[in-house]
Amino acid sequence: MKRIILLLLVFSITIFITACNKESAEIIDIRGEIKEVYADEESLLIQSILVEGQIEDDTKYDSAIITITNDTKIFKDNEGVAIEDIMEGLRVEVTFDGPVAESYPVQATAKKIIIIED
């Protein structure tokens, strides 16, 4: 009986350590073209974008309205860029942060936006 408990304990600890040490790969929620940019009418600051693409093996969604916050990281060529670099027609990969409203298109907040060069 002690042996079974010891084996279960070792097995549980092994699973726990493996799960904690596993480096989580970021999932690309959507890859596609920015079809629309929504800005505040008064300040003209970009608040959200509509991205449309196709569901691929490494993506989850084909259309999304994505909110951009001060915490959103925006990159191009592995360099951080300003929100002003976001414009219609760009191809992007977006990783979401937090919950996703499962409407169509889905609605989410961007954790990271990568501008892709074709």
Question: What does this protein structure show overall?
Answer:
The protein has 118 residues and is α+β, with helices and mostly antiparallel strands. It has one helix at 2-21, and strands at residues 30-39, 46-53, 63-67, 73-76, 79-80, 91-101, 106-116. Strands 1-2-3-7-6 form a 5-stranded mixed beta barrel. A hairpin with a 4-residue loop joins strand 6 and strand 7. The longest helix is centred in the first third of the chain and has 20 residues, at 2-21. It is elongated and about 70 Å long. The termini are far apart. This is DUF3221 domain-containing protein. Pfam families: DUF3221.
Distance between the first and last residues' Cα: 62 Å
Overall spatial form: elongated
Structural class: alpha+beta
CATH topology: OB fold (Dihydrolipoamide Acetyltransferase, E2P)
Total strands: 7
Spans of at least 5 consecutive residues with low confidence: none
Largest sheet: 5 strands, mixed, barrel
CATH-wise, what's the superfamily?
Nucleic acid-binding proteins
Strand content: 35-45%
Report Rg.
20 Å
Q: What count of structural domains?
A: 1
The level 1 CATH classification is Mainly Beta
Read across the widest sheet, the strand sequence of neighbours is 1-2-3-7-6
Q: What number is the mean pLDDT?
A: 87
**What percent of residues adopt helix (DSSP H or I)?**
10-25%
Q: List the total number of helices.
A: 1
Organism: [Clostridium] ultunense Esp
Protein name: DUF3221 domain-containing protein
InterPro entries: DUF3221
